[in-house]
Automatic annotation (TrEMBL):
Name of the protein described by the UniProt record: Aminotransferase class I/II-fold pyridoxal phosphate-dependent enzyme
InterPro entries to which the protein is assigned, alphabetical: Aminotransferase_I/II_large, AON_synthase_class-II, PyrdxlP-dep_Trfase, PyrdxlP-dep_Trfase_major, PyrdxlP-dep_Trfase_small
Family annotation (Gene3D superfamilies): Aspartate Aminotransferase, domain 1, Type I PLP-dependent aspartate aminotransferase-like (Major domain)
PANTHER family in alphabetical order: CLASS II AMINOTRANSFERASE/8-AMINO-7-OXONONANOATE SYNTHASE, LD36009P
Coiled-coil residue windows: none
Domain Aminotransferase class I/classII large: 64-405
Protein source organism: Chryseobacterium tagetis
Cofactor(s) required, per the database record: pyridoxal 5'-phosphate
């Protein structure tokens, strides 16, 4: 085995030529040992529920941290009305479904949840399908809609679940948000494929920037293609009424497929697909993940239904979130740090070098701040960053303490923009 642990990344262990599965697992085990003994962290343990203040076990100590690691953007994981709705779900329907949706595991609360999420986007119940996770919503939808005669044309920064969804079909990627490159692929793919489906995110998960949806929609129509938008980081946050990145473009009822998650703004677990009812019908009854896998349990479904209602009933959470985002981003920008092109609740501090990024992450922990250092393969090798998710439950004092920590670390490690 020829892997140098000092420069290796987790990706290097996916496939090592000549090593069988057990030998690869052994090599990986040794690598993790090496990482741990050199002070690297790869997973911390949260001892309390999801919150902007978390009790965390990090490097053998357990203490309270200000947390920026969850996508609980509006704080709905802990909202008393969401918790109450989940409790009522268990009391009324029990703990689980014990069957897959097509053979007895489709319950009234699944119907209610589909109706609620479809209604949220101004659609009828039969235009929504729910999945166990957002990951499955993307991968299952693409796997059943596109076959080897078709093509997915994807922005290179889309989520891993989209890439997984393309393993049975043809795939071409275009550089992030690059309209010229997208048009070139659309033009050169004309008449070559049966279906051309362009797949983008509304908000990109590592940079927090948005897609130029209107321009992409125009191109897609010009070349007789279809458009799928994964808006997991936009829904509940962007748009006049929180319907996400697409809302203010006026295209909510025109995008062919919208996918999302219940694990971020809605504070729970699950995914959904919104599309024309013929498409949702096809996905609902044909996708292997619907046929062979159980779906959302009762407390999850009833909790999500309440969270969806809260977007309209309690819009002050969204306003507070935006106050926090604007305050925090301005503080980081003012001190010369590079927050890139974000226009959402995902706020990165771009550093570049993966080792310095790891050091920044450790120093932040020393200051009592819990963030995620993001390195290759989640981002390009020289584009490492500290990734933070701002939430409505952060208070000013949390943000100020974090800004002070960055000021201190900036001076120690020289991480300001040149
Ligand atoms: N799409 C994007 C852009 C994401 O960031 C994520 C979650 N990291 C997903 C899909 C998958 O969502 P879930 O966690 O519900 O599987």
């Amino acid at each position: 085995m020829n892997i140098d642990f000092t420069t290796a990344t987790f990706k290097d262990f996916e496939n090592i030529p000549g090593l069988d599965m057990m030998e690869r697992a052994n090599a990986y085990y040794d690598f993790l040992d090496y990482m741990k003994s050199n002070g690297h962290r790869y997973r911390l343990q949260n001892n309390t529920g999801c919150s902007s203040i978390m009790n965390v076990t990090a490097e053998n100590t357990t203490k309270e941290f200000i947390s920026f690691v969850t996508s609980d953007y509006l704080g709905f994981t802990q909202h008393p009305k969401v918790k109450q709705a989940a409790i009522e779900g268990v009391e009324k329907f029990g703990a689980g479904t014990a069957a897959t949706p097509l053979i007895g595991g489709y319950y009234s609360y699944h119907n209610d949840l589909e109706e609620k999420i479809a209604g949220f986007f101004g659609r009828s119940q039969d235009e929504a399908v729910i999945f166990t996770t957002g990951y499955t919503a993307n991968s299952a939808t693409l796997q059943i809609l596109l076959q080897k005669e078709d093509i997915a044309i994807v922005d290179m920064a889309v989520h891993a679940s989209v890439y997984e969804g393309c393993i049975l079909t043809n795939r071409k990627t275009f550089p992030h948000n690059n309209l010229e490159a997208l048009e070139h692929i659309l033009k050169t793919s004309e008449n070559q494929y049966r279906t051309k489906l362009v797949v983008i995110d509304g908000v990109y998960s590592q940079d927090g920037d948005t897609a130029p949806i209107e321009e992409i929609y125009q191109l897609v129509k010009k070349y007789n293609a279809y458009l799928m938008v994964d808006d997991v980081h936009g829904v509940g946050i962007l748009g006049k009424t929180g319907r996400g990145t697409i809302e203010d473009t006026g295209l909510l009822d025109k995008i062919d497929i919208i996918t999302g998650t219940f694990s971020k703004t809605f504070g729970n677990l699950g995914g959904y697909v919104i599309a024309n009812k013929k498409l949702t019908n096809f996905i609902r009854f044909q996708s292997r993940q619907q046929i062979f896998s159980a779906t959302t349990p009762p407390p999850t479904a009833t909790g999500i239904i309440k969270a969806i209602e809260l977007i309209d009933e309690e819009p002050h959470w969204r306003l507070k979130l935006w106050d926090n985002i604007n305050y925090f981003k301005k503080g980081l920008d003012d001190m010369g740090l590079d927050t890139g092109t974000t226009c959402s609740a995902v706020v990165p501090v771009k550093i570049g070098d993966p080792h310095i990024t790891g050091d920044v992450g450790k120093l932040l922990l020393d200051h009592g701040i819990y963030t995620n250092p993001i390195i290759y393969p989640a981002v390009a090798r020289k584009d490492a960053r500290i990734r933070m998710s701002v939430t409505a439950t952060h208070e000013r004092e949390h943000l100020d303490k974090t800004l002070n920590a960055f000021e201190d670390i900036k001076n120690k490690l020289h991480i300001a923009k040149k």
